[in-house]
Every structure is written in structure tokens, then in C-alpha cells.
Amino acid sequence: MNTSLRYVLYICIVLNVVPYVFSIKCWNCRSSNDPKCADPFDNSTVPMTDCKQEKGLSHLPGVRPSMCRKIRQKVNGEWRYFRDCAYLGEVGIQGDERFCLMRTENTP
């Protein structure tokens, strides 16, 4: 095989592999539907989503998912967990939930 053809073949392979290498894949679950989504997390049967394939959000035109997120919230005394692709936010410190965004209810 001549050098030019080999070079073109390598370029084609790289162009086909790069999008998969740099895509973000996140677990996608809700503990209200799947108890394995809660902590401690059992990811053996939880599906992963390729965030590159996620539809854009109408209220955030042009914004694509850039990281994974885990939301933990207490609803009526019960902890609920959500895991999926995130469009906005800041990366926290792994294992330290003190640096995550926290919201509270408005109480009169």
C-alpha cells in the first residue's frame, strides 16, 4: 500500500473514532423508578446515555450537555436520586457533596 493511501486510511479511522472517544456517557435513572439509582449506587443494570445524542433544550438554545450530574433531594421525607446528562453547572469535587449546588424551599 502506498504512503498516500495509508495516510488517507489513517485519517478516516481517526475521524470515525474521535467523536466516540470524546463523547460523554452518563447514567440515566431516577430512584422513584429504579431503586438501584439511589445511594449506594448499583450501576450493574442502570443504562448509560450518550450525552451527544441528547436533544437540546428549548430554553437553552445551542447549549449541549458537558458533564454528568447527580441530584439528591428530599421529597416528603424520602430521599430521591436523579442521574443524567447536565447542560449547565460546575464540576464538584468527587466524593465531597459540600461543594454542590443546594436549594431550599421558601418558608413563610
UniProtKB/TrEMBL annotation:
It is a lipid-anchor; GPI-anchor. One of its GO terms (cellular component) is side of membrane. It comes from Spodoptera littoralis (Egyptian cotton leafworm). This is Protein sleepless. The chain crosses the membrane at residues 7-24. The keyword tRNA processing does not apply. One of its GO terms (biological process) is regulation of synaptic transmission, cholinergic. InterPro entries: QVR-like (IPR031424), Sleep_regulator (IPR050975). The keyword Glycoprotein applies. Its main location: membrane. It is found in: Membrane. Pfam families: QVR. Keywords: Glycoprotein, GPI-anchor, Lipoprotein, Membrane, Signal, Transmembrane, Transmembrane helix.
